[in-house]
Structure formats: C-alpha cells, structure tokens
Amino acid sequence: MADNPNIQDLISASAGQAVDESASAKFEEKNKIIAVHEMEHYTQNKAADLGVPYLDLSAFPIGPEALSLMTEDEARALQAVCFYFDGKNLRLAAVEPQNEAVLAKLEALKKQAYAESGDIYIVSPHSLEHALYLYRTLPKFKPQPKGISLTEESLNQYSEKIASFLDLQKQINSTSVSDVLTVITAAAVKSGASDAHIEPEEKEIAVRFRLDGLLYQVATLDKTMWPKIISRLKVLAGVKINITDHPQDGRISINMANDKIDIRASFLPTNYGESVVMRFLRASVAGIGMEELGIRPRFFEILKHEIERPNGMIITTGPTGSGKTTTLYAILQKLNSKETKIVTVEDPIEYRLPGISQSQTNEKYTFAQALRSIVRQDPDIIMIGEIRDLETAEISIQAALTGHLVLSTVHTNDAAGTIPRLLSMGAKPFLLAPAINAMIGQRLVRKICTNCKEETTLTPESFGQVKTILEKLPEEEKKQIDLNNLKFYHGKGCEVCQTLGYKGRVGIYEIMTMNPEIEKVILAGSASEYDLRDIAAEHGVVNMIQDGLLKAVEGLTTVEEVFRVAGSGETGA
After folding, report:
1. Which of 124, 139, 408, 450 has the smallest CB count inside 10 Å?
2. Number of structural domains in the chain
3. Which positions ≥6 away from 562 have C-beta within 8 Å?
4. Cβ–Cβ under 8 Å, residues 445 and 506
5. Domain span at 442
6. 326 vs 309: CA distance, rounded Å
7. How far apart are CA 563 and CA 446, in angstroms?
8. CB 376, CB 533: distance < 8 Å
9. Same domain, 429 and 481
10. 188, 193, 196, 202: CA torsion to nearest 10
11. pLDDT tens profile 481-503
C-alpha cells in the first residue's frame, strides 16, 4: 500500500489539470472573439473602400421566406445569401459583392421573386457562416415528381379554352386525369372564384366555385378519378398523401405575370372520402386602395380624418366574408409609410404587405399574447385580426389610449352593435368611450355585369319599400337623387358573367364616429343597439341598406341583391 500514490495527491493533480484546461479553453475562446472582431473590422473597411453597405448577419433576423429563395449549395458556392425579402424589396449579402456571378444571381432572384428592387451588402465569412447555419432550421420538403406543378403557362393552356362552366365540363371530360386539377384551377382563376370546392358524394365528385360570395356547381367528376387527383393535389400542397383520417392544411403558390396567387388547400375526411376546399388569395387584392372600396364621399372624408388621428380604435364589423379584412388592408395601405411602424397580428395572414411587420397566431400564440409583445415593438399602428375575448379587448383599448392607432374587427350585425359587443365581453365603459374613434358596419353585394346591364322595373311592393327607406335618408344624400324618378337596373346574363348577371362585388357601409351622445349612453351603461342606431340617424349616418339602395339607384347593384345581403328592414341587420 505504501507504493500507491496518495489519494489526496491524485485529487489535487486532477484538479490542477482541470484548471489548466479551463484556462486554455478561455484563452482560445478569447482569441476567437478577437479574430472575429478583427474580421468584422476588416470587412467594414473593405465596405468603405468599395462603396458597398456593410452588415453583420449574426445580429440580423433572417426570415425563411428570404433564405429559401436560394439553396444552401448555391449560397455556399457563391459565398452569398438572400437575407431579406418583403414581397417587394430583396437584399443579398455576399463576401465578394462585386463578383459577376453574385451580381447575376441578384438579377435572377429579382425576376424569380417579382421584386421591384434588389441590393447587395458585404459581409464577413464568419457572418455569412451564421446565415448558412440557419438552413438547418428550414422545413424539409420532398421534391415534387416530374410534371407535378401549377404554373401560369399550364393554366393558360386551358383557360383560353374555357369560356363558360359548360366548357369546363367538356374540357374535364376530354382531358387526361393527370390534367384535371390544372383544368379546374385554370377555370377558377379565370372566373375570379374565391374558393373551389371538390366534394365526394355517393355517386360522383361535385366541383363547386364560390363566385362573388355564392356557391355554384360547375362540374362533376367520375369517382374513379378522385384518388389520383387528390394525391396530386396533396403533393402540390405539401401535405401527407397517406393521411386520410384527419384534417390537413397545405399551401400552393402560383406566380403570374402581373399577380401572385396563394392557394390554401384544406383537406377534410367525410363519409364518402376526403373533401377539399381550395381558397384563392390574390396578391393584387391587398393592393386595393381606400378610394376603391365604395365608401360614399362624405363618409370617406370622415373616415380619412379618423384614421389620420395618432391614437384611438377603428373597428370594422360584419359576418365572415363581408370584406372586413380587405377594408383594414386598404386603410393600412393608406397609412403605410417609411416614417410609420405598423405591426399586425392575424389568423391567418391572408396577404403579404410590404413594409409592414405581420405576425400570425396559432394554438400556442394567441391574439392576447401577440398583443403584449407587439406593444413592446414601439409601433405607431397596430392591426388585430379580431377581438374575440376580454383580454384582447382590454389590451387593445389600453394601446388606443396610450398613443397607438388600433385597427380591428368584431362580429356583429352592424356598426351599432360594436359597443354592446365589447361591453358584453367585459370592457370597462369609462375606458371604451374615449378609446373608440369610428365603427364601420359593412357587407359585400354583387355588382351588375357592365356588359349585359339593362334597366328593369320593380314590383309595386318592392318599389314602395325602397322609396320608404330612401325617404328617411339624411338631407345631404336625399338631394342627390330624385325620389319621383327612380331607375333601377339588372344584368340579363352573358358570357362575360357566366350568364349570372353579376360580375365582381362592392361594399355597402355605415360609418359611425364617437360623439358626446354616444359617450353618454356608454357611461350610463345603457348602450343598446337601438339607442345607438337612433343617435346615428340623428347625426346623419347612412345605414347599410340605405347605402346599398343608393348604389342600386346608381346602377352598381340590384335591389334584390341589397335585400338579400342586408335584409329588407331599415337597420341593415
């Protein structure tokens, strides 16, 4: 035992070795930091010599939509990476920004992504490596089988042959199974459908398009086709082919010459097989300006004044599909500028808006959680997809009272229902009254096809009802029409409108702004919809049905359409 080393000596020696290794590691780490610092300093000097902007990518948040524009192999070969893309502006970072291959890649990416501008920044090799590492975080997609794609060229091949729904059925019957999905998509895009429903029934597959808010059956498919068609659609949408017993959601993008179409594909198991709904989201819709919404001139100026205020709430109301999101996007487009920070929280993000920070909620990331984070982002304007609960309402109201302009929606029948709805959630009356700037009630009505528009005659009963409603218009609007010589129109149906008589939609609106009388009833706790409608009428507000009938007199829509969408009473409910 005497020859054995002392246990305590071994422990001490081991501890000494550990201290040496720790010191060595710290020294090595310090040298790395110094080397990186020197590399960044050298790159900054090089940027100044070349007249190229410098960037440190290790401190820059790079989104997957930008990174995925180039493959990792391309990025490593060029020593360059796409680090920013907002749908309009594209930014490339490169170790050698004046390399001809890098410059050529920038031009190719601009064409590929339909970007309006593109710039190159210089980065250090260390900074670039940080960005290249992020490729590991991108979702992995299996390559599509040869021939599985939807492009503008493939759609154009069939859209020229489809003038009507009758042509669609003929084209489906004469084409190969592998092209049926392309034919259906081409017809949906050409007709301006917002959704295409492909639904298995007992004996056949029904194909229906939603046009201007209404569903129409446009074709049927043989059930033997369905397994191959839905498999192809699943591949395109990036969902699992072998999953048939629970819902799945996927996405397809089609770049057009003058537009971009995102297709949200929803797969739902039913008793006859999986049903599919394809929602077509056109990027051009997000570009609609406030002037194109169809708001009457007097109320357009009122709303314009309210959205130009530095704080407060603008709330749009109406059922699903009434155009609330389009109205909010139009307002955001009006307010968007380089001097304004705009942040949105949506479920889901329907359209990408350049220059605006958009955040999407999910099961673990609620509107309320998103709002708490957003107010720390120093925004000027906040858009909330929907106020659904008390927590979201309270944060929104506080934001409106502390220097932010807040835009949002609630589900009510009309503008007068906004305040009772928020109060029923538990919002405090003494905070709600000073927070709200304006409430917008709206619906969408179909427009008469201009190609087959003609004058029509109403039934005596319908004419009397219209005249009674228009007689209660505010004096300023009543002056603009001749109640004794009212003319109305309809579309007789033609090839342009698929024989429907309607083509496109326009909004009908009622816009209420906060005033002392409304504040008084809110604070008194007696803010019923009926009281608020009466106050609005006293202040010259045109309600939705009145606005709709004025548009019918102007030849934009029909009386039947206004009554169908807004009801036949005077409240527009």
Report:
1. 139
2. 3
3. 445, 508, 545, 548, 549, 551, 552
4. yes
5. 288-566
6. 21
7. 12
8. no
9. yes
10. -90
11. 999 899 999 999 998 898 899 99
DSSP state of 6: P
| Cα–Cα nearest to 115, from 127, 105, 101, 130 | 105
User: Do 488 and 386 belong to one domain?
Assistant: yes
The amino acid that residue 489 corresponds to is Y
Torsion of CA 361, 365, 367, 369, to 10 degrees: -150
Element (H, E) at 199: strand 195-200
Helix 180-191 × helix 226-237 angle, to 10°: 70
Question: How far does the chain reach from its first CA to its final CA, in angstroms?
Answer: 99
The pLDDT score that the predictor gives to residue 141 is: 47
Task: Write the DSSP string, 469-502.
Answer: HHHTS-HHHHTTS-TTS--EEEE---TTTTTSSE
Q: How far is CA 254 from CA 54, 70, 136, 258, in A?
A: 34, 18, 26, 11
Q: What is the DSSP pairing of strand 436-448 with strand 405-410?
A: unpaired
Q: Which stretches within 175-242 are classed as H helix?
A: 180-191, 226-237
Q: Report, as ranges of residue numbers, the positions in the chain whose pLDDT lies below 50.
A: 1-2, 7, 10-11, 14-15, 18-19, 141-148, 570-573
User: 122 with 75: CB under 8 angstroms?
Assistant: no
Q: What is the pLDDT of residue 16?
A: 52
Domain shared by 267 and 300, yes or no: no
Secondary structure of 445-472 as H, E, C letters: EEEECCCCEEEECCCHHHHHHHHHHHHC
| Amino acid identity at 264 | R
Among 140, 172, 193, the domain-final residue is 140
Same domain as 126, residue 61 = yes
Residues 517 and 382 in one domain: yes
Tell me what pLDDT residue 567 has: 84
Strand pairing report for 357-360 and 342-346: parallel
The contacts of residue 194 (CB under 8 Å, 6+ apart) are 210, 211, 213, 279, 280
- Under 8 Å CB-to-CB from 238, ≥6 apart: which residues? 141, 250, 251
Q: Considering the entire predicted model, what is its pTM?
A: 0.70
pLDDT score for 147: 43
Query: Same domain, yes or no, for 171 and 89?
Result: no
Tell me: the pLDDT tens digits for 315-342? Answer: 999 998 899 989 999 999 999 998 999 9
Residue 300 pLDDT? 96
Tell me the three state secondary structure of residue 560: helix
| Contact (CB, 8 A) for 182 and 141 | no
Distance (Å, rounded) from C-alpha 6 to C-alpha 343? Answer: 68
Based on the fold, state whether residues 334 and 370 are members of the same structural domain: yes
DSSP letter at 144? P
